[in-house]
# Entry
Amino acid sequence: QVQLVESGGGLVQAGDSLRLSCAASGRTFSRYAMGWFRQAPGKEREFVAGINWSGGNTYYADSVKGRFTISRDNAKNTVYLQMNSLKPEDTAVYYCLSNRNAWSSSIDETGYWGQGTQVTVSS
# Structure
């Protein structure tokens, strides 16, 4: 059974940084692309960042390019999202996704999801 557990969320001020973590278990982590999504109140869930199985390719939403960095540590079965220069519009619940199929570079929303971690950025 695949399990994803996010952590690292919190309440910060605009301009601050946070690092989110997503610890995976239940299968061979290093075979699967991972992604971060977010959902703000009253809005649809949106893609934030993705990383392929090896970590060699990363993808970002335009709204976070240059501020957020996704990375993975396959030895620790963990994917990270370093968020710098946070803005109030980054406030959302952040979700971790693990692709359903191995060896893919694209992010597949039909995969496995974590429970989410709240990020709140005050102005």
Observations:
- The mean pLDDT is 96.
- The radius of gyration is 13 Å.
- The chain is about 0% helix and 50% strand.
